[in-house]
Amino acid sequence: MAKQHAKNTHTGSSSNGEPVYLNVGFLRRPHGVRGEIMLEIQTEHPEIFLPEAQFYLGEEYTPYIIASSRPHKKGILLSFNGIQDRDKVGEFRNTHVYAKISELPDLPEKDFYDYELIGLEIVEEETGKSLGKLKEIIKTGANDVYVVEKESGSEILLPAIPEVVLDIDLSEGQMSVFLLDGLIA
Predict the structure, then answer these.
(1) Burial of 82 from C-beta contacts in 10 A (0-12 / 13-18 / 19+)
(2) How far is residue 96's CA from residue 102's CA, in Å, rounded to a whole number?
């Protein structure tokens, strides 16, 4: 989840190609003896991890409801309803945590999830020329980088910054960009 860009794209998909689940975290290790486990946050909206919220664990997308959550170091300590044992919660170690896309909160205007951006046609604002399709989003420390695949198969790397990404129109399936000096289309 993001502002003009998004977070991890590891999702479960429906048969029509639309994702059903969005990866929002990764369970690391048990903490203490009362069934808490450390969650590595993989979303820009950690406030979604509230008691009574339902999430889906592992590749089978098994539903679990959060019993408690609290910040801890760079992550969140979670416990799940019905699990108060370190050994039982330890079975979830190294497991992805997913949210159903249909259950995610709406993002503010100009914020998008990765799955909404992948596949958009990238258009140079000044010329109206298509540069290709958004193929991938690379996460870096400073800003995301959009990998645009040209029709020829070659790639262009665009920084996902406001000076470059001018407009995103999901209904038109397009992203308008401005090529800074040094960016070659």
Answers:
(1) exposed
(2) 18
> 131 burial class (0-12, 13-18, 19+ CB within 10 angstroms)?
buried
The two tokens of residue 131 are: 């540069």
In this predicted model, what pLDDT tens digit does every residue of 105-133 receive, in sequence order? 777 888 888 888 999 999 999 999 999 99
Dist. CA 91–CA 85, nearest whole Å: 10
**52-56, 138-142, 157-161: lowest mean pLDDT where?**
138-142
User: Which domains does the chain possess?
Assistant: 2-111 (2.40.30.60), 118-177 (2.30.30.240)
Place of tokens 């990404």: 165
65 forms bridges with which residues in the sheet? 54
For residues 27 and 3, the model is more confident at 27
Alpha-carbon Rg for the chain in angstroms: 19
Query: Token digits for 109?
Result: 């205007």
Q: What's the rounded mean pLDDT across residues 165-175? A: 95
